[in-house]
Amino acid sequence: MTFTQGPSGLTFYSAANRSHQYETPTKVSCSYCQTPIMDEGRNMCLIFPSSIEYGEDYEKWRNAFEVDCHICYTTRVVDLPDGKPKWSGLDEHSNRLDDVGRGVSVRNNSSGYA
């Protein structure tokens, strides 16, 4: 993602320090309309897909954002009955859950999910 005007027009917010000074991690939004753009961490950046221009190949763009699994599912707001693997915390470092949040017992398989 390139900001053609640099940080001009962007607002930063550090929840940890309750500050608008730029420091990671920070939330980045538009200064004019307050639309969230991304969350920038120390080693990652979470970009809202709607902020990315997909060009002429919408299907390729859509597939790039296909969900592999759901993490931190115990704190979800809604159930997601999509058949994707769900984890109570981080994937493969926590308990597997079913679509409604109950623990499931699974065996290793070739999909890479425990």
Entry keywords:
four-stranded antiparallel beta sheet, 114 residues, CENP-V/GFA domain-containing protein, 1 helix, 2 domains, mainly beta, globular
Structure description:
6% of the residues lie in helices and 18% in strands. It is mainly beta and 114 residues long. The chain folds into 2 domains: 10-64, no CATH class; 67-114, no CATH class. The strands form 2 sheets. A 4-stranded antiparallel β-sheet has the order 1-2-3-4, with no helix packed on it. It has a two-stranded antiparallel ribbon with strand order 5-6. A hairpin with a 4-residue loop joins strand 3 and strand 4. Mean pLDDT is 86; it is low at 109-114. This is CENP-V/GFA domain-containing protein.
Q: What's the structural blueprint in terms of helices and strands?
A:
Layout: E1 10-13, E2 26-30, E3 36-40, E4 45-47, H1 58-64, E5 86-87, E6 96-97
Antiparallel strand pairs: 1-2, 2-3, 3-4, 5-6
What is the gist of this entry?
The chain has one helix at 58-64, and strands at residues 10-13, 26-30, 36-40, 45-47, 86-87, 96-97. The chain is mostly beta strands and 114 residues long.
Oligomer: single chain
Mean pLDDT: 86
Shape: globular
Summed up, the domain count is 2
Q: What percent of residues adopt helix (DSSP H or I)?
A: under 10%
Between the first and last Cα atoms, what is the distance in angstroms?
34 Å
Write down the Rg: 18 Å
Structural class: mainly beta
Strand order of the largest sheet: 1-2-3-4
- Strand percentage: 15-25%
Number of strands: 6
Runs with pLDDT <50, length 5+?
A: 109-114
Element order: H for helix, E for strand:
EEEEHEE
Protein name: CENP-V/GFA domain-containing protein
InterPro entries: Mss4-like_sf (IPR011057)
